[in-house]
């Protein structure tokens, strides 16, 4: 009987996920914008992402594929400073005119973490968009213009398994020139306010789940507000390699109707 009891206890313990070992780090990030976080990446981090979007805006219906890298790192000499950048190859397939393939704008940013305690982290930074976006792709991330954004973000560590993240941003979008069926059109850029937040919950040391709700006012005169509800998961294959995936639902016409994304992140 004693052996049966000991065996039963052992089986029960083995069946419990290793939640007690879970420990969120600053390298765990939400899906939509990794810079919108009070945390600072603690080493070089590169992520490749493949995304599919369905759009239905005042400019018509379209499907968009994007493929590209995001690179984030802190400075070796100062771990409170984070630098990052991203660019995508985009395939734009509208219903009403010809499909196009081109490059998105290049986003580069820097931020400084000026508060860091075991529970609270607070950062602020600046983002600059370089005008590399294709004029034939009618998409907010392919403006072909120089845009500026200032943002602040915070993280609250509830415990070793859960972090709450929030941000606020102010962005100046320059007027966007697009070419539709060889006709050039200028779309007026707007001053944009963005707010949002999310949660990361680490179920086991290898798996975390996340959700976020982000809202922004219209980026351009022909667009509406950009409100997205996003869910995702990260699975750590090795200490340096992570597979990520998620889906987003657009809650206003300035956002994609829905999006699927698959990502692979490597920490050097």
For the termini, the CA-CA separation is: 52 Å
> Low-confidence spans: pLDDT under 50, at least 5 residues?
1-21
Main sheet?
12 strands, antiparallel, barrel
Percent range of helical residues: under 10%
Question: How many β-strand stretches?
Answer: 16
Radius of gyration in whole Å, from Cα? Answer: 21 Å
- Biggest sheet, strands in spatial order? 1-2-3-6-7-8-9-12-13-14-15-16
Large-scale geometry? globular
On the 0 to 100 scale, the average pLDDT is: 90
- SS summary, helix count: 1
Q: How much strand content do the residues show?
A: over 45%
Order of helices and strands: HEEEEEEEEEEEEEEEE
Task: Tell me about this structure.
There is one protein chain. With 268 residues, the protein is mainly beta. The chain has one helix and 16 strands. It has one helix at 2-15, and strands at 45-57, 60-75, 78-86, 89-94, 100-103, 106-116, 120-130, 147-157, 162-172, 176-180, 183-187, 191-204, 207-216, 226-238, 241-250, 258-267. The chain has a twelve-stranded antiparallel β-barrel. Strands 10-11 form a two-stranded antiparallel sheet. It is globular.
